[in-house]
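Why predict the complex rather than its parts? Because the way molecules touch one another can change local conformation, and only a joint prediction can capture that. The input here totals 1236 residues.
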Amino acid sequence: MPNSLVIADTTNSPHARQRPVPVDAVRLSDSFWRPRIERNRTDTIPSQYQHCITTNRIRNFQRAAGKVDAPFEGIFFNDSDIYKWLEAASWALGTNPDDEELRTMVNDIIKEIGDAQQPDGYLNTYFMFEKAAERWTNVRDMHELYCAGHLFQAAVAHYRATGEESLLNIARRFADEIYRVFGPEGRLSACGHPEAEMALVELYRATGETNYLTLAQRMIDARGGNPKNITGGTWDDRRYLQDHVPFRELDEVTGHAVRMLYLSTGATDAVLERGEPALREALDKQYASFTKRRMYITGGAGSRYEGEAFGRDYELTNDRAYTETCAAIASVMWNYRLLLLTGEAKYADLMEWTLINAVLPGISLDQKEYFYQNPLENDGSHRRKEWFGCACCPPNVARTLAQLTGYFYTLSEEGIFVHLYANGEAHIDGAIITQQTEYPWQDTIRITVSGASAETKTLHLRIPAWAEGATLNGSPVTPGSYTPVPLTGGAAEIHLVLPMPVRRFVSHPYATVDYGLTALARGPIVYCLEQVDHSDSDIRNLRLATDTPLTAEYHADLLGGVTILTGQAISVAQLTDDLYAAPGSYDAPATSAALTAIPYYAWANREAGSMRIWIPTS
Amino acid sequence: MPNSLVIADTTNSPHARQRPVPVDAVRLSDSFWRPRIERNRTDTIPSQYQHCITTNRIRNFQRAAGKVDAPFEGIFFNDSDIYKWLEAASWALGTNPDDEELRTMVNDIIKEIGDAQQPDGYLNTYFMFEKAAERWTNVRDMHELYCAGHLFQAAVAHYRATGEESLLNIARRFADEIYRVFGPEGRLSACGHPEAEMALVELYRATGETNYLTLAQRMIDARGGNPKNITGGTWDDRRYLQDHVPFRELDEVTGHAVRMLYLSTGATDAVLERGEPALREALDKQYASFTKRRMYITGGAGSRYEGEAFGRDYELTNDRAYTETCAAIASVMWNYRLLLLTGEAKYADLMEWTLINAVLPGISLDQKEYFYQNPLENDGSHRRKEWFGCACCPPNVARTLAQLTGYFYTLSEEGIFVHLYANGEAHIDGAIITQQTEYPWQDTIRITVSGASAETKTLHLRIPAWAEGATLNGSPVTPGSYTPVPLTGGAAEIHLVLPMPVRRFVSHPYATVDYGLTALARGPIVYCLEQVDHSDSDIRNLRLATDTPLTAEYHADLLGGVTILTGQAISVAQLTDDLYAAPGSYDAPATSAALTAIPYYAWANREAGSMRIWIPTS
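Output of the joint prediction:
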């Protein structure tokens, strides 16, 4: 039996500062996350299952097993959607073992997968029959190892959720075949789309098979080899694939954003196991490149449509921001692993921020429609869709929500760490931790701990960097760090206040795209303006004065329950429709106009219209 | 013999307000255009000829003629580069008939083209031998009609330049074959890459063959047909190809920028011949869409790398501006034809502005290297290249410079119109017009006219819209219009002053990307900051106060002779390298720092470094 239902099981990782707490150790009863997690299980996962059927993603497995006579349908990496769905379903099943309908779906799909597996362990429904001879002939472009990685993650999740080894054994057989082809006795190569690295480390953690760790490390080491690069092509091609320099010399986030962040996540997993300083240093530089120069205020990653890629430093276009939902999820995964590695609060800060402001916008409030791209400014034409031909994002959101409670707490020798806040209860190492709060809408969190063991001496509470003036039981605590609370007699009563004034942001001025613009946030939530809330004015004409007071008020009946910000803006009529004119030409007459800001994650759930996060400053 | 060496010969076009003046009627002796036109002939055109040889673009014709046994090399539309080069060389030869070296090159290439032509008139070196069966099977993607259009333009230019019909006959034979395939008795279709439309109208003008005009009109009419579209594909595909709605209903510039603007240019040519009001109305809407909402301050067109395309309204990213050099050239061609159609000064204004600020940046000062994209902000990594696999831009610049003197004047029943200013002499309808000026660097233009016929009663001088306070012989004249000067006794002495203070621009605030930023211009020239002129400060830290005086001074030894702008800016040190922070976090300490602005067209001709047109306002 597996240890427990954890994400990134660093329990035995020699270089981890922290280890995960099971996804099913945390039971939420809040109004923010719980309904989303529940709807994910009852609506999102079943509806995605239907999409997988109707788009013949499942039939592809039946075809590979010789059960149906039909052509392969869809894109060559469509197996990965099935695996991601299966991972999502497994986490959901782990936390809801009584959901028999879900269990049936899961078991049915595992059966199809198993039947499609080849005698040598190979498993990819695209490379069958007439395509079988092309296996592993183009690992740069054909995503075989990427698909394998998603299988491994699904298998680990399923094993931890159910204790069953059905999918795990399929994964192992395939991983063993990959080891024969790409292990020390085989070819030195890696996938053009990283993903298998982190998956193989987890498969190692779940099975104890060191070959898988070896393989993951080998795939990281293979990149940027000189003179022969694994992926071939021009320098720009290789840069796009993070293969232009050895990974240890890669000091920026570059190329395809999801691939980049998956790769860094996998390398972080490798560091958790092996502790290599050179790898760690490269990761720190990549992280600085991302967070200091190439990240949207939402936490979103990737500014270019062309290639779904990172741009140059400070290249952060808002209307054409790509910010793929998957890239945000990759950032959450990376931040979580860096948190396990270091125990530093900044990683948990960004993990929470990205979850709310860059992952959640990717799914509609009814949780059946999705954004692939998440622009920070739009004319109303960008709307969510039920599914995509390249449907990477929908099941990625589903697996993230299904495992979300696993991100709330971690454990270390220093005690229990609390990273996320929401009304609910957790059972960790015998201790019962109860949170009473309306976070993220309200600033007060009451925490009680009881029954902690003598070894668990301390509870560490994340004080977000934004929480200036935070207090714990009336005493000031330091934002951007964990505040320790001793568990005297295994218990504590905590009254934590994380003040949530409306905060204004400006961008680093090298990001000229945002110069003169202001963004709004409150607590961990980034806000935006949507035209539908402004019947009296075109939001493109609104200007925000730096000293305008803004009021926060919770509306239970709006957008699933949100705190909105309201105030008076300046509305500027346009004197001319000329595209360029002398300064002052567009400045008058100005009137006062009501401004309403809603959480960015909730945009595009009502009537279509303009939206913008960055508001011109008057 | 042809009438004369004119661009867009509207001499007999029933709906033209103006008709062109021959390219060789104008002899410049100025320091701005003349060296460029001369270097174009002596350096650019010969060096491009060499590139056409070394890249086997010419060998492709020899192969098609069965002279060499070699594979087709390059991209399937590479013939068009040869044709564009030939057009450039023809204009140059027309104005320099003694250039025997050039004549030899031209004749050699014409011989190769003629030898490659098929018995039925078909001519495309890609669709030969094993590809011959694919002729006209994919007119959407394979650019056959596009290549044909460039052949027709070259043929017309060559015929007008030399009076010889060698290339014209090749063109006619091919056009006749196209008429058989796509004329009224053939298929209703059009090229995915418009170009043939304007070329066919010109071929009609040069030959009198009305079938060519019919064919051009038919290609315009074919687009956006319902229910069957000519190009097929999704609505987005068709929109990209300007085939989603009938052209008469197309009220925006959309999709691939060069294709869009070539199509509008061709439709304007059709209106010049047939005067159809519905077509004219659509063109006006497209023009407004372009100039009011989708054009860069340089005149550049196309904000998206993905698809080399126009973006949405006010989508005008600066660092990733695509602004293909060819798209700017297309805009010049379109504006010139709208000028011929209407006689309105705004078209000549934008023609000049675009030539200087969006076409000239596409070529290095030594005129041997080219930009494909012309960003308005860059970190120094964007540098010109000698050639491209897709080498559409280099010969496009060459043909534009080779015909440039043709844009200076036009004729109408109201007299002679002067659109561009430069030291030199023109012979028009017997009149001799002399311009004495250091324009575009200085504001004074002395014009003398003598020998004008009795019918040529008036000289009309363009007063650019930017020339506030302009005077003519001491009396105020109206910017944005043509000022008539009577030619008493066939002569006039004119002292025109077009004041050139440094002008500041801001963008329409819906273009949030430019909000809070200022651009500088003087006369017809847009300026930029380049790091190389700022040894004491990082130009990204410079802020321009709205009241800072800026001084203009000519430097003969700098960048081929330019007027630069200097003044004191504010240099702001960055207090934090955080990407997002509270307002004020980046504001201090500020010091005074020298600011130097150079003409944008001259950027990237020295040491690589940051460049920006839009400067943060302090």
